[in-house]
Amino acid sequence: MHKIRRAVEVLFVLTLAALLIGGVVFVAGQAVALVAGQGDWLELLNETIKPPMCIAASICAISGFLLSYKRHQNQEQPQEAGAR
User: Fold this and answer.
1) Angle at 73 between CA 70 and CA 77, to 5 degrees
2) What Rg value do the Cα atoms of the chain yield, rounded?
3) Tens digit of each residue's pLDDT (9 = 90 or more) over 14-49
4) Residue 29 in contact with residue 45, Cβ under 8 Å?
């Protein structure tokens, strides 16, 4: 079970990093495209960078939920055992 949790943690960190880097590139690219007045660049950013960012955000959210759920479950068990 510990190996699964570790794999989910690694997945969370990798997708979070990809999401943050993609977000910086996306926003910086939009700013450059707006300043340069290039609408085609905005379309290119939306078609190339946005879909992988959305996938990374979804995977990151699901893995984060799984990590928080498992941690919460582990925290409750020692309290119940101490009360008995």
Assistant:
1) 140
2) 19
3) 999 999 999 999 999 999 999 999 999 999 999 999
4) yes
